[in-house]
UniProtKB/TrEMBL annotation:
Protein name from the UniProt record: TonB-dependent receptor
Keywords: Cell outer membrane, Membrane, Receptor, Signal
Species for this entry: Sphingomonas gei
Family annotation (SUPFAM superfamilies): Porins
Entries under NCBIfam families matching the protein: TonB-Xanth-Caul
Length: 926
């Protein structure tokens, strides 16, 4: 569609409007908004209290915001923060490992939003900026706000939106001690013998006040062990196979079963002190320790002959609309995998906010924070088969496509027979860049450190006799450093040779040790493989010899990114009456000066020798970000809200790295003078990359009802500039590398002027527009009739369309964007009894997955719908008062996660089925 509106022009047109300020870290009571004056006070609890609190926040803000509030101390409405946020309009989640982790807001993936904790920017244990929300125990938060329009005092806002996680404030809360425990069971029995289907979760929260309610503390602890079972299928792709009439043919497949367990414990502490009316101090701390272990077992089958499988297609295969859906193949050599992945991560966040009243109308606010995350991965692959490099027994398999797009693969060989199966490199894939190696396994050991320190100071005061009610000026300085270190190793049998090379005499295979074998064999019968050899990969790892992977592409992944950001801002808040209508809002400006840099290495391979040279670079730039919002109450409970702003979000951290992997292709010498014919090329990052920018227009119509509930319709438009093309190419003079060429070849290159080659790196060459509409209905049925008191719904839906182009005018599909998303929650809650069901649906989208060596890959995700439900009861009187019991079920639709080739939904690339999860929990409030 054509989107011809100029966002910059609309920003300028609305810049004369009036606006209201959001409540950020220094405004601790935002999550405790009271009912509006025109609403009767209704004493409710549970989800009704949560929805009412969220509605009050939305109503009282001049910004466009959606919120999730806790139902009680230590209890958000859903199993996780991401589950709760995915119910909000314009927000959807991609499931990874059976959990909602990767959030998209208004069609833009996690790289385009920012996550705050009590108003402060947070680091992440992920590979880039996107926060993994399962790092944060949901029990620790009172409110989660999603700001969709901007304000000058909202530092580090995102283009898509800003998620602000808010801990409770003890002086605004009642005294309480709450403990809860919950058991979990997956409907699938453990798919691996060393896995588990049972888990638990426990938490305790203590809130108290002292010294005549001038000192408050809140302490929370949480621990959980969450298992998941995953039947996984991955197809390599679907090449056109000449030996099958040129029809698309399954290139290869990896049926797996995965058993995972996530263990996390953490704690929070808040100390709030108000010794006098002139001083208010709040200290927050959050710590989370996260460990996830994955056990994966399966068989990788190279299938299509055109992709080098050496398999033979037998006559009589079946073709449907250009795709081979059934065939028998001989001479097949599969690779058995017994893999083990372990991720450990720690997250620490500290913040100290101090509000000092300098006079009756002026306050000084100083806020200091530190956020630090560390993560280490241990990604172990081990291989077994019938012989080294296709030298052993061959298999005959029958493949047939199922109705869900996966393929059954029925083998003839007994893959549990240790008489023919050994630890080896069955396909001879091992290659270190120079020589063939015996790759019996591979180990990736990346680790990351993300550190962010910030100091913020501001002055704010009141303005009398004017529609402008307050002013605020401030500055925020932050320094973020993310270190990424990658180490990888080839693993081969011990007993001879050096560096795992075949030529040096490394053993080509060794028997599977008997003490590593497990008594129970894994079954892949859900896709036709009855059993496979099952052993402990850690015991096998101890018997293998490691050889460091020193290829240029591996060495240049190590890097350090540093960002030093100074943000100054000023704004005027409005709170008054115009034409008899209540008006509030704000006008503001941010000036953001950034100095960013990177250090790492440039590596190349020449004559079998890897050379790596350290490199570092730094750049700086300044951005001006005006913003304006206003909210006018045209009629009783009817609001129109407008927002206009220029916002920005920084690119992926891995794109800001300076590192480059240089390639010298001797075969291209003498082929021409065009850059693509140069023997020199390079691939890497761009330390001078600038942020994505967006001019935004937001309009919201909101109607709030007496007795609770509201309807909202919101439209938004974003004009994107400086959009990052991750694969841009620029011309580069490689003359300094001419000396590595032999004299005769050097002369040819110079004569053809072929020293000018291409450097592939990200660049700010894209632009585009996003247009969308969101609708929300939060309706307690008591607004229709008191006979329906206790019943209600919360429903939302959104539509997003985008047109993004790179410099060559090639269109871009935004990762995470579904054109249509919707969710609905129906509930009943009264007299301590509660029941609810939530259904979330999203249209197809571009999914992001971890590819080879954890590099991101993108494929089309199929539309999916997920149904969750829960039922519970809380005793409200008698000896059990304060005791409650809750039963929950997640993913009742057993919806699989499926990705396909973009042009044909029959060509399924990934298929993951997690099964249903059931929970039973108890809570006691003292």
């Amino acid at each position: 569609m054509a989107l011809g509106v100029s966002a910059q022009a609309l920003v300028a047109a609305l810049a004369l409007a009036s606006f209201a300020a959001p409540a950020f870290a220094q405004d601790a009571t935002a999550g405790d908004a009271q009912p509006a004056q025109d609403n009767e006070e209704i004493v409710v609890s549970g989800i009704r209290a949560s929805l009412q609190s969220s509605a009050n926040i939305k109503r009282n803000e001049a910004m466009i915001v959606d919120s999730v509030s806790s139902e009680d101390i230590g209890k958000l409405p859903d199993v996780s923060i991401a589950d709760s946020l995915a119910r909000l309009p314009g927000v959807t989640a991609q499931r990874l490992e059976g959990r909602d982790q990767r959030l998209s807001i208004r069609g833009l993936g996690p790289d385009f939003s920012t996550t705050l904790l009590n108003g402060r920017e947070q680091v992440t244990v992920g590979d880039n900026r996107g926060v993994e929300y399962d790092q944060y125990p949901s029990e620790f938060f009172k409110t989660v706000n999603v700001y969709k329009s901007a304000d000058a005092s909202l530092v580090a806002a995102g283009i898509a939106g800003t998620v602000d996680l808010r801990m409770l404030r003890p002086l605004d809360s009642r005294r309480a001690f709450v403990v809860s425990a919950r058991g979990q069971m997956n409907e699938k029995d453990k798919l691996n013998p060393d896995g588990s289907r049972y888990g638990y979760r426990g938490s305790a929260t203590y809130v108290d006040k002292f010294a005549n309610d001038t000192l408050g503390i809140a302490i929370g602890v949480s621990a959980q062990s969450t298992p998941t079972q995953n039947e996984r299928y991955a197809a390599w792709g679907f090449p056109a196979e000449p030996l099958a009439g040129g029809n698309h043919f399954l290139g290869g497949a990896k049926p797996y079963v995965q058993s995972s367990v996530l263990k996390r414990y953490g704690g929070v502490a808040t100390v709030e002190w108000v010794p006098s009316e002139n001083f208010h101090s709040t200290f927050d701390a959050l710590y989370s320790n996260f460990e996830e272990v994955q056990r994966l077992r399966g068989i990788e089958f190279p299938i299509a002959p055109t992709w080098g499988s050496n398999a033979v297609i037998q006559p009589g295969y079946t073709v449907q609309d250009g795709l081979v859906t059934e065939a028998t193949l001989t001479n097949v050599v599969g690779v058995q995998r017994n893999d083990y992945n372990k991720r450990t991560a720690k997250n620490l966040s500290l913040g100290w906010n101090n509000d000092l009243r300098l006079s009756d109308t002026i306050h000084l606010v100083v806020d200091a924070s530190w956020s630090r995350a560390t993560r280490t991965d241990f990604l172990l692959e081990t291989y077994s088969g019938t012989g080294y490099n296709q030298s052993g027994a061959k298999d005959t398999i029958h493949i047939s496509q199922n109705s869900d797009g996966t393929y059954d693969i029925v083998p003839t060989l007994d893959y549990t027979n240790t008489g023919i199966i050994s630890l080896t490199d069955p396909r001879g894939w091992g290659f270190n860049g120079v020589e063939t190696v015996v790759q019996t396994g591979f180990l990736n050991r990346p680790d990351f450190t993300d550190d962010l320190k910030a100091l913020r100071a501001s002055l704010n005061g009141e303005i009398g006799g004017s529609i402008f009610s307050r002013w605020e000026v401030g500055a925020n300085y932050s320094r973020r450093e993310k270190q990424s270190r990658y180490k990888s190793y080839f693993l081969c049998p011990k007993g001879g040779g050096t560096n795992c090379t075949v030529a040096s005499g490394t053993p080509l295979s060794v028997p599977v040790p008997a003490d590593a074998l497990l008594d129970e064999q894994v079954s892949l019968d859900y896709l036709g493989v009855p059993r496979m050899l099952t052993y402990d990969p850690l015991k096998v790892y101890a018997l293998l010899a490691p050889y460091f992977d020193g290829r240029p592409g591996s060495l240049v992944r190590d890097n350090v990114i540093t960002e030093k950001v100074l943000t100054g801002y000023a704004k005027f808040a409005i709170d008054g009456t115009v034409g008899g209508k209540a008006l509030k809002g704000s006008l503001g400006l941010q000036v953001v000066h950034t100095k960013q840099g990177s250090s790492g290495a440039i590596a190349a391979l020449q004559d079998g020798v890897v050379t790596a040279s350290p490199v570092a670079g730094e750049t700086s730039y300044t951005d001006f970000l005006p913003s304006a919002t206003f909210s006018v109450e045209l009629d009783d409970g009817f609001f129109i809200k407008l927002g206009a702003a220029q916002t920005m979000v920084r690119p992926r951290l891995d794109q800001e790295r300076i590192t480059q992997a240089v390639n010298i292709d001797f075969a291209k010498i003498g082929t021409g003078s065009q850059p693509q014919n140069s023997p020199f090329s390079s691939t890497g990052g761009n330390f001078a990359l600038k942020p994505y920018k967006s001019g935004n227009i937001d309009v919201s119509f909101e109607k709030y009802f007496h007795g609770g509930g509201y309807l909202a319709l919101t439209g938004f438009f974003k004009h994107l500039t400086d959009f990052v093309d991750p694969n841009d190419s620029v011309l580069y003079d490689f003359s300094p590398l001419l000396s590595v060429l032999p004299p005769a070849q050097r002369a040819i290159v110079v004569a053809q002027n072929a020293q000018f080659g291409l450097v592939s790196q990200p660049a700010n060459t894209g632009r585009g527009e996003i247009l969308g509409v969101e609708a929300t209905a939060s309706l307690p049925f008591s607004v229709f009739s008191q006979a329906l008191d206790g019943f209600g719904i919360f429903a939302s839906g959104s539509y997003v369309d985008s047109k993004i182009l790179y410099a060559n005018n090639s269109p871009v599909t935004l990762p995470g964007q579904s054109k249509w998303i919707g969710s609905g929650t129906a509930y009943f809650e009264k007299g301590g009894f509660q029941a609810r069901a939530t259904y979330r649906w999203r249209d197809e989208f571009l999914a992001e997955l971890a590819g080879l060596s954890a590099n991101p890959e993108y494929r089309t995700g199929k539309a999916e719908g997920v149904l969750d439900a829960q039922i519970g009861y809380e005793f409200q009187s008698g000896p059990l008062a304060g005791f409650s019991i809750l039963a929950q079920a997640k993913n009742l639709t057993d919806a699989p996660f499926v990705t396909t080739e973009a042009d044909d939904t029959r060509l399924v690339r990934e298929y993951q089925r997690y099964g249903r999860d059931y929970y039973l929990g108890i809570t006691y409030k003292f």
